[in-house]
């Protein structure tokens, strides 16, 4: 996290979770309001910056995308370095991606402080008809692990901005209280 000009903040936020849960699309929906049906198109993109205003202060959210590295189980420590927020994403229509959440949290904990603002994100909530993970399962895991929880759809935009905004707000409050 960097602070410049007295009123300017830069928050690094990482998006993690199994391959194909929708990480890249959450990011492009948030940063550019775009949805990409061709998942391969995101390879190579490392981060996107979105400016938000909080209490009259300019906050730059620099959101990092694994850019496909996770497929090879090789998200490097450079990816996590300096992160102050994390979105741990699973796909509500694929139970295995939910079962991986603990592994992603373990990995986050090896690389980052426990003070990092965390949000559990159940993406693809538009796929209600093939849902494999209930809202309650998501909620209770989040409670157990001390995470915020939200269900999103990068496809139809449900809660995407809200997910990022909650994390950014939490980081901002921690920074203001000098916890981060
Ligand atoms: P990543 O590997 O986690 O970055 O996942 P991508 O963002 O590349 O998305 C993987 C696949 O899921 C692509 O085919 C997307 O079109 C699709 N996808 C992503 N988000 C959603 C969503 O909210 N709803 C639905 N139905 N499909 C999604
Ligand atoms: Mg991706």
UniProtKB/TrEMBL annotation:
Q: Name one GO cellular component term.
A: plasma membrane
Which UniProt keyword terms apply here? GTP-binding, Lipoprotein, Membrane, Nucleotide-binding, Prenylation
Chief site of localization: membrane
Question: Subcellular location, in the record's words?
Answer: Cell membrane
Question: Topology with regard to the membrane?
Answer: Lipid-anchor
- Recall the GO molecular function terms of this protein's record: GTP binding; GTPase activity
Asked if Oxidoreductase is a keyword of the record, the answer is: no
Keyword Cell inner membrane part of the UniProt annotation: no
Q: Could you say which protein family the record assigns here?
A: Belongs to the small GTPase superfamily. Rab family.
Please identify the protein, giving its name as recorded. Ras-related protein RABA5b-like
List the source organism. Sesamum indicum
């Amino acid at each position: 996290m960097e602070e410049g000009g007295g009123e300017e903040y830069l928050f690094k936020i990482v998006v993690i979770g199994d391959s194909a849960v929708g990480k890249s699309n959450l990011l492009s929906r948030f940063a550019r309001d775009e949805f990409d049906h061709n998942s391969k198109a995101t390879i190579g993109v490392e981060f996107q910056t979105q400016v938000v205003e909080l209490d009259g202060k300019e906050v730059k959210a620099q959101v990092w995308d694994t850019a496909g590295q996770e497929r090879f189980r090789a998200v490097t420590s450079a990816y996590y370095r300096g992160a102050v927020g994390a979105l741990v994403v699973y796909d509500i229509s694929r139970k295995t991606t939910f079962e991986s959440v603990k592994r992603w949290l373990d990995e986050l904990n090896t690389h980052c402080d426990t003070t990092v603002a965390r949000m559990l994100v159940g993406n693809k909530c538009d796929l209600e008809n093939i849902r494999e993970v209930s809202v309650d399962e998501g909620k209770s895991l989040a409670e157990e692990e001390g995470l915020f929880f939200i269900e999103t759809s990068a496809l139809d935009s449900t809660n995407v901005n809200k997910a990022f905004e909650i994390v950014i707000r939490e980081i901002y409050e921690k920074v203001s209280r000098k916890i981060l």
